[in-house]
Every structure is written in C-alpha cells, then in structure tokens.
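Quality-control log, excerpt.
Job 1 of 2 completed; input and output follow.
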Amino acid sequence: MNTHHRRSDASGDLLIETHDLKRRAGQMIQVARDLPAPEKLGVDMIGVPEGSPIGLDLRLESVIEGILVTGTATTTLAGECSRCLNPIEETTSFDLQELYFYPDREAGEDAYRVSGEETVDLEPVLREAVVLSLPFRPLCMPDCAGLCPECGVNLNDHPDHDHEERIDPRWAALRDLGTEES
C-alpha cells in the first residue's frame, strides 16, 4: 500500500504522522512537505535562515524494527565567506536517512524512536544532516583571494592591490645609513 501525502505546514512542525504504516513491514508512505526552518539551523558562518522554506521529499517505510525514513531536504543557505566576508546564498539539498525504532524494540541509547507509535520527529535528524554537511570555512568561490591583511581591501575586486614594502621598525634606522653624506 502506497499513500502520498502533500501538505504545507506553516507551523514548522517537523513531526510526521506514521499511523498509516500500521506496523506492518513493507508498508510505505511518501511525504512531500514545505515548511519553515527552525531556529539556529547551522553554524556561525553559514546556515539556514530561520523561517526560510525547507522542501522535504521523504519515503517512510515500515520495517520490523521501526520506520526507515529516507529522502532529501532542499533549502537555501545564507552566510558569509570566511575569507572576504561577502554574503553567500546558495540552494542545496541534504540527504536524510534514519531508522526510528518502535518503543518496544531494543536499540542503543542514541537511537531515534517513534513516539507513541504515531509520529517521528524529523528536527534532530534534519539538524544533524545540515550541520554536519556545512563547510567549516565557507567560501564565496573556490579561489577567493580574501582581504588585504594591511588595509582590508577586498582582493577579489582589486587583484592588483599592493603596498610599499614594509620595513621592520627595528631595522628602519639602518635604511638611511647608506644615504648619509660623510
């Protein structure tokens, strides 16, 4: 039995009802849902802005141990480049796959569980997939030149930017030594 669910959930609720699966192995439902992103979905430099749309395309399959959730979450990331601090915005997809164990099944303490045999909570799985996939140092482009360490000019906009050669202040007095008249 395949059932297709599609609804827009403005509340941002990441709970998916599973009662149609009826704990019979081999049952499957598909869920296509657009919902707003929860808060703090990302890291300091880049993440999913709170309230921005996340498109879920999921398959929930009943297996002996519980419910296997597989699919993708598509959303827009926003942040800033770690080299030049320019804004970054890109659409990306994250793969989701998790087994939610029925309450009466044995599982490790970190395992996700079907709550009351009626719902699965996707928020921790989505959060884990997004945060673990984000770049540690996001870049606006792979060869970003960054900022000038002396004056802060964006070197992507001014590739020929240059400063006079700096002299170590400890040696500055020697600079004039050869130009003195005897």
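Job 2 of 2 completed; input and output follow.
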Amino acid sequence: MAAPSRLPSNEEQSADAAGGGSATPSQGIPVVDLGVLVNGAADERSRAIRDLGRACEDWGFFMVTNHGVPEALREAIMDTSKELFRLPLEEKKEYMRAKPMDPIRIGTGFYSVVDAVPCRRDYLKMFSHPEFHCPEKPAKLREIAMEYGTCTRALLLELTKAISESLGLAGGRLSEALNLDSCFQILVGNHYPACSRPDEEALGLSAHSDHGLLTLLFQNGVDGLQVNHNGEWLLAKPLPGSFFVIAGDQLEIVTNGRYKGVLHRAVVGGEQSRMSFVSLIGPAMDTVVEPLPEMAPDGRGLEFRGIRYRDYMEMQQSKSINEKTALDIIRMKHQGEMLTCQGGSTPST
C-alpha cells in the first residue's frame, strides 16, 4: 500500500471538507459480493477471497452486496432512530450524562466534554452484544435494534471468516484469536444537521479510524462519508442497497499492520440533513489483542504491542478524536520495545 501523504489537520479538514474529494464505485472503491463468498463455486470463491484481501490491504474499505439484510429492516432502524432524535430533551437527558463506556449514550460531536473541534453530529450509541442495551423510547426501538444487531453481527462474522482466509489462515483463526463468539458489538445512529452556509465549519465528524474490528454502515441517501485513500479524501458513494464496510484498529493490530484501519470522516453541507447507521464488532472486551504469530514469524517485525480491547476502546473513546493517535500509542517506536517483545511475552495494558 502506498504511503499516504501528510493528512490535513482538523482545522484544515474544516476548511476543505465541503468540497473535498469525489469518488464513485466505478472509480475504484472495491465491491464484495457476500453471496459468492458464502455460496460461490470454488474458483469463483477463491477469486472473491483474493479480491477481499486486496480491498483490506489497499483500501481498508469496501462495499458489500447480496448481504441478506432486509431493506425493510434497514428502513425500520433508520426511522426509529429519527424518532429518538426528535424526542423532547427531558426524555433523553438520562443518557446524555453517560460516560464513554456506559452502554447507552446520547450526545453531540464525538465526546463533547473533550472535543477539540466542533462536530455537527447528534448520536445514539448502544451496546448490543454480548448484552443488549436500548433506551426505553421509542418503544419499538428495542425489538428492531435487537433484530438488526443479530442480523448485522452474523454478516460481519461471515466477512471475518473470509478475511481470515484472505490472509492464508483457517476461516476461524481470527475468531479464535479475538474470542468473537463473545464479540463486542455496538449500534450507532448518527444525525448530521443541514449546513447550507459555505463559510461555516463543515465537519460532521473529524478524521479517525474505528476502535473495533469491522464497521458496517449505511446512510439515508445523502452523501457525506469520506475515506482517505493514498493520501486523498474521496467521497464514498454507495451502490443501491449495499453497505460500506470499514476496517478498524483491531484488524490492523491482529494482522500486524498488513490490513489497515482506514481513516474516514463525515462532512456536512447543503440543505439536507444526513443520517447514517452503524453496526460495529470488536473482540471480546477482555481479550488482549496482539499480532497473530503467523503475521510476525519468530516474533520479528512486530508493529504493535498487545492491549486489552476494553482498555483500548476506553482510551480512544475518552479523548478528543484525532486520526490514529490511539493506535500510535501502542505502535512499536523504539528498537528497545521490539527487543522486549521478541525476547519474552508481549506486554499488555
């Protein structure tokens, strides 16, 4: 993968976000057909696995089609999210006092207590696995979110098997290493208000990589997701009915940097508000995530030290969002650190 040029700061992002980048599926964003990965003939499936590996290595981002998630379910989870955002403040304030690791949070920006740059976003975050949590209102949200979480978790775990195979490993290797039978899952609804004045800051969410393993995202027909590919910000335009899949930091750690957690951001602009809905999976919370031995033979060339996923997530979620600074904390920087890992057990925090 070509080394990205210097990425813009948060302030520079605000200045260029409204007109930043453009891309269509035909311009190179990879597309993965889940039907081929699951039920394709052997040669067809082998090609799809190789293509998936290239997507993870070159982009850290792709679209998935034929995924089996009913369109009616996607519409239902989006509609009930809209209802929640419209609720009176009194009915939401209980969750607006929540801390980063609380299972239900409603707020603005990223973590408004520490945000360095104002971000035009309202959000709902709810942990959905291994234990399911949901606000009491709207009443129908619980049933819809539970079904959506179950359905998208199965999809993401199926993709994880194929990603494991793309590394030349057994399909269950990543699941075994990350204890995905008890995986962490969070559902996130995002609302980005309209921003029609070109002189206003136009960031919905600053550049960042996700703390988890894989993120599944769809939106309400209003574009705004940008991904950084080879140092250039590209506006991601989805195929009808598809999901975006975003590689996260835990995939970068466990593959020893072979597959990258992609930098992405949300921009706002124009007179239409944008909504997106996210389903993210990560390792079991108390799993120490470290590079697979297969990715660093004889313990040489380790890119990261091990860290418990719960600690990593809390570290990333409790600070001002800023590109990949959380991952950089556990990145090997000194020869002394490498020698420590090569000569003994991998440290964890």
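Post-run check on job 2. The mean pLDDT is 84.
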